[in-house]
Amino acid sequence: MPRTRDEALRWIDHGHPKLSVRRQCQLLGVQRSQLYYEPVPETAENLDLMQRIDKQYLQTPFWGSRNMTTFLHQQGFAVNRKRTQRLMRIMGLKGLAPGPSTSRPAPHHPIYPYLLRDVVINRPNQVWSSDVTYIPMRHGYLYLVAVMDWFSRYVLSWRLSNSMDVEFCVAALDEALDQGTPEIFNTDQGAQFTSRQYTDRLKSSAIEISMDGRGRALDNVFIERLWRSVKYEDIYLKHYESGADCQKGLTRYFKFYSHERPHQSLGNRTPWAVHTSQRRGAKVPT
Q: 3-state class of 158 per DSSP?
């Protein structure tokens, strides 16, 4: 048996064919939160490249690995396209790098149609959405998942993890569902969101499931805007050292974002004010 907590955390096998991560943590005597908040280590050079890719992706989400490699060359980095593809896959950038991708469904998972084309969003709890994004840190990286109400932009829940597994996505979903039930729930086609564990949660609450078209990041435009705000207003400024620091910092940020920060698109009101005060069918002031 491992002698220290850090050693025990290194024993965890996210791909174990028989033991879930939860069961492995139980057997090793560690809390899952300790596991998920440990940043994934990476070289300083790769972390620099990944942060540059991350910032550029927020500006040009339609770029593939070819354009991103050209961009890195212009920044003075002698990287080949294969390396760019590998880094983009680690970051979970949707459908932009050929080959395996964390935003592609598992072969046996069903895909649901996109239900929101030309739909007028005019009330809270009409549409919720969820997505996962890469969080750069000083010595590694984590992943962040959030659940957002489209009408009010209110962030109902969020979780951090160092793995793109389904468990932290389901945990965020469960917390959101404790606060209400949407009519439609929209995600991309990532394996986390197409899994039975995730979709069964939605079906059991009679929620319609909508999924973005493959490679169409802008189908989930409101949560993509959230990622831009989170990163430029917090993550890129703070350069968090540890997962615990990141957890505390994002707790403060999401409170600010939802309860204190006025949004121009919401008539300079906060997401929380709109989420709790709008009657069914009411329109956001312009």
A: strand
pLDDT at residue 93, rounded to an integer: 83
Distance between CA 263 and CA 244 in Å, rounded?
A: 29
Place of tokens 């048996």: 1
CATH superfamily of 127-277: Ribonuclease H-like superfamily/Ribonuclease H (3.30.420.10)
Residue among 77, 53, 55, 78 nearest 67 (CA) = 53
The residue-averaged pLDDT of 126-151 equals 95
User: Residue 102: pLDDT band by 50, 70, 90 thresholds?
Assistant: very low
How far apart CA 176 and CA 57 sit, in angstroms, is: 28
d(CA 124, CA 184): 11
pTM above 0.70, yes or no: yes
With tokens 């009411």, the residue in question is 282
Task: Count CA atoms within 13 Å of residue 113 on its CB side.
Answer: 3
Beta strand pairing status for 40-41 and 127-136?
unpaired
Residues in the chain: 286
Residue 201 pLDDT: 96
Dig out the tokens for 44 from the structure: 């300083």
Burial of 237 (0-12, 13-18, 19+ CB in 10 A): exposed
Domain boundaries, the chain: 5-36, 42-91, 127-277
CB 144 within 8 A of CB 133: yes
In the chain, at which residue ranges do the beta strands (DSSP E only) sit?
40-41, 127-136, 140-149, 155-161, 184-187, 208-211
- Residue 266 burial class via C-beta count within 10 angstroms: exposed 0-12, middle 13-18, buried 19 and up: buried
